[in-house]
Structure formats: C-alpha cells, structure tokens
Amino acid sequence: MPSQTNVTTEALRTLHRIHRQLSDLRQRLRRGPNLLRAHQANVANREAELAKVQDETKAVRMAADRKQDQLKDGETRIAKLQQQLNGASSNREYQTLKEQIVAIEMTNSVLTDEILEGLEKIDQFKEKLAQSEATAVKAHQLAEKAEKEISQQEPLIRADIQRLEAELTEAEAGLPGDFRILYQRVVRAKGEDALAAVQGEFCGGCNQHIPINMVNDLMLSRPIFCKSCGRLLYLPENHSRG
Ligand SMILES: [Zn+2]
Predict the structure, then answer these.
(1) Which of 14, 128, 152, 199 is within CB 3.0–4.6 Å of 204 for a Cys-Cys bond?
(2) Given a cut of 60, is residue 3 above it in pLDDT?
(3) Which tens digits make up the pLDDT trace of 147-191?
(4) Cα 196 to middle of ligand 1, angstroms
(5) pLDDT value at position 5?
(6) What is the pLDDT of residues 103-140, one digit of tens each?
(7) What DSSP string runs through the chain?
(8) CA 197 – ligand 1 centroid, Å
(9) Residue 241: pLDDT above 90?
(10) How far away, in angstroms, is 229 Cα from ligand 1 center?
C-alpha cells in the first residue's frame, strides 16, 4: 500500500460500528424464524402429549364402563337365579342355584373393587388431562405472542438494516480507492471481524502484540492490518498517546 494513503481513525471507527450493528441486526432477523420454529415444535409436542393423555383417559373410561356393564349383567343374572331359587323344586336344584349365585356375587365383588379403582384412575386422569390442556394452551399463547412480536420487529429491523447499509455505502465511498480494495477484500472474508480496535499494544481481535511503530503509523492515519489475524486496526476513543 502506498505510504501516503491516509484513512482517519474516525472513518475506521465508524465503519466498524456500522459493520457490528449490521451483523447484530442480521442475526436478530435470522433469530426470528428460528424462534418461531422452536415455538411451533413446542406446540406440536404439547398437542401430541395432550392427545396421548386424552386417549389414555378414554381407554380408562371405557374399561370402567365395560366393568359397569358386566356388573349389571351379573346383578340381572342373580335376580333371575333368585327367582328360580324361590321356585326350586328340589334341594339339589336349590343348592346348585345357590352356588351359582355365590359365584356371580364373588365375580361382582371383584368387579366392584375394580370399578372403584377405575373411578380413582379416572380422577387422576382428569387432573393429568387438565394439566396437559393448560400446558398446550400456554404453548399456543407463547407461540402467538412470539409470532406477534417477531412480525412487529421484523420491519423495524429491516428498516434499520437499510439505513445502516446506506450509511455504510456513504462511509465506504469516502475511502481512498487503493485502500478500498484491500478493505473490501477483508470485509468479504471476515464480515464484522474485518476491523479491530487496538487494545493498548494488542490487537483487539486476536490479542497479538502490535509493534509500537505500527501503533505510531495508526496515529498518523496510515491503515494497518494485524499481521496475525489480518484485521484492519484502528485506535479506540480511549487510546492514550502514552
Ligand atoms: Zn489480530
């Protein structure tokens, strides 16, 4: 680079600021759809979970209903047997009928216990169902809120990006032509990391030591690239001249 090329510290600071802001805004723009996808996945998971609990609840209810029907059948049969018992013509018939009744009564007793257990289970599932429903509703609400926020922010971010891109074009137009080519090359390769402020005697990008003669060159507004990382260096506002 010709030694007479001069780029002011102010111009480099401005360029770095714009690059950083642009990079930040573009990141925010990308984050929106990613966040939405995450919310949509969460909603889908909650819905699936809810559907599973609904199915389980239905199965428990149907099992309890089936047992209720069996119990009723048993009771009807006992009533019939009881009638037959009253009209029993022999002691043997009476005994047989009595044994049948006892057997059905035992079955019914087991069924009654199982039905009670089933009802308890249904109560538990009611709670589980309410929780799943609440969680699904909450997930929906959060997704809608995020979608609203993102759709509100997006045009603002895009407008900021446009404004900064115009600012960047203007700032770049002020660079000397021979230097601009080097600058553009490093910007294409590194984006916002194309520039770095000098921190004391070190590169703010890679922490490599910057020889004092290079710092002196910077003070004379001569553009300097870090020999280690290739970043375009500039002096920060708080830089003391020692
Ligand atoms: Zn460096």
Answers:
(1) 199
(2) no
(3) 999 999 999 999 999 999 999 999 999 999 889 999 999 999 999
(4) 7
(5) 80
(6) 999 999 999 999 999 999 999 999 999 999 999 999 99
(7) --TT----HHHHHHHHHHHHHHHHHHHHHHHHHHHHHHHHHHHHHHHHHHHHHHHHHHHHHHHHHHHHHHHHHHHHHHHHHHHHHHT--SHHHHHHHHHHHHHHHHHHHHHHHHHHHHHHHHHHHHHHHHHHHHHHHHHHHHHHHHHHHHHHHHHHHHHHHHHHHHHHHHHHHTS-HHHHHHHHHHHHHHGGGGEEEEETTEETTT--B--HHHHHHHHTT--EE-TTT-PEEE--TT----
(8) 9
(9) no
(10) 4
What token pair was written down for 112? 């009654």
Q: How far apart are the CA of 74 and the centre of ligand 1, in A? A: 88
Give me the mean pLDDT over the 7-34 stretch.
95
Could you tell me the distance, in angstroms and rounded to a whole number, from the CA of residue 6 to the centre of ligand 1?
20
Ligand 1 centroid to residue 230 C-alpha, Å: 6
CATH number belonging to the domain at 21-171, selected among 3.30.1300.10, 1.10.150.50, 1.10.287.1490, 1.10.10.10:
1.10.287.1490
Ligand 1 geometric centre to CA of 212 (Å): 15
Domain with CATH 1.10.287.1490 in the chain: 21-171
Give the integer Cα–Cα distance in Å for 76 and 56: 30
